[in-house]
Amino acid sequence: MLRIACNSTRTRKLANEFEQGRHTSRKNRGRGGDGKMTIHPTTSGEPDTKTRILDVAGPLFARSGFTGTTVREICRAAGVNVASIKYYFGDKESLYLETVRLARALRADRYPFPDWSDDSPAENKLFEFVSALLRRLMAGQAAPWSVQLLMRELMEPSEACRTLVAAHFQPVFESLLNIIDQLTPQPLSRSERLKVGFSIIGQCLHYRFGREVVALLVPEKLKNEFGIEQLASHITQFTLAALRADVDLESLQNNHS
Amino acid sequence: MLRIACNSTRTRKLANEFEQGRHTSRKNRGRGGDGKMTIHPTTSGEPDTKTRILDVAGPLFARSGFTGTTVREICRAAGVNVASIKYYFGDKESLYLETVRLARALRADRYPFPDWSDDSPAENKLFEFVSALLRRLMAGQAAPWSVQLLMRELMEPSEACRTLVAAHFQPVFESLLNIIDQLTPQPLSRSERLKVGFSIIGQCLHYRFGREVVALLVPEKLKNEFGIEQLASHITQFTLAALRADVDLESLQNNHS
DNA sequence: GCGCCGTTAAAACAAGTGTTTAATAGACTG
DNA sequence: CAGTCTATTAAACACTTGTTTTAACGGCGC
Fold it and tell me: Pick from A199, A250, B122, B220: most CB atoms within 10 A?
């Protein structure tokens, strides 16, 4: 079971660690940022301005996206002046990039995808994978902002952090492919392997991306049969059945033109 | 095979027919719009201003969405003054609504989903369905703007036309459910039926919604194995296999807690 | 002619946007 | 204390957004 509560104190701490080696963005023409890096002038427990901005920008960007979030909104929430963004990050886009990087760092540290020991049967691993993915996708409001932000980037990556996001999701997908390998007695072709992988995460992602359609098409009284556990169970069964019977269908390959 | 070319002359004509019974929006405080409906003052072939706006707003909204499109952009493209939008539609949102309605009318008239005769085997119907859906989803730039716009609304419906869009996609989904019924010897439970339907369209939609991820995860040299025909073939086989073997898996139902 | 009416045009409006300036306060150093 | 550097502020800047005003144009009946 995944913990999805977000400890804000820990977030701030990690944000601080993270900024140490990172905060020289290319457009940083401000007087702050790079330089001799004085250790916090105020020795009180109060987090400094830069940390406060990052702390508050994450959830906002995660909720409303890049263009949907204004710098004034961020600064108001953080209780700082609008000029601080230029001072510490250069411009809005650099702040966004920094936020995505922070999200990735938080996620990698605290929410690694389960790396199951090899003794459990592959069927269980598949269920666990689907279940975990669904949980993250559907958490929505309840999910930590880092998850929301990365999911948003997964849907429509910004040009700037496309590779960053790819690097983040690649190993997840890779572990799914490994599970698939364990489920298929004879190895699939490279492209078949990928397509099966996409069929699985496609079934999962649909409940997020197509959330609105699902809500419209499922009658109210059946909604209680669409819980995460039940969906994960269905997707797992559907996939296992497809993989079991896959061999019989090779003959149908060229049935259609 | 579906025709996806968009005849602009025909579009204009339909737009005119369409406006006849429709163009009294609630916020229409302008002098034009409702009233005695004078038949085109200029008898030349040149389309009037309202039609020109609608004609040009459709593709723009389809490409960039509601907030991504500015009224000035529309008016510049249509060669009309910005005030015309208030005059004919009241405001931007009403124009957008009108555009969605027009898209729906165009789609319903010209691109009905295939309503196969009952003699062809259900397996073929499934392939045709998946193939048609994929084609519409992936057409992207090449698709008529009406399809693009409705697909956009499918992903994130505007509050205003949620029911409109639902009414549009409902019968499509219904026909998929019918195909599923024909493929399963003993009838599925109501929720199972829906879940199988979602598994199918989920696999399809993923190649649109998760387009970016797919592009990142498929190595360049395998890209040619991800054409629409091949994907449709895979999804069809995957689904058929799952449905065939579905019975054996009922026992696994309560395997996980 | 004259006024009427539907239509269009240019300009202004008010409220945003990201960004930048110039000034200020507060430390620390010489 | 003066000087310098960091940090922060209020205000302005330049621009875009949707919307609205005001005036002018052009055909029409009288």
Answer: A199
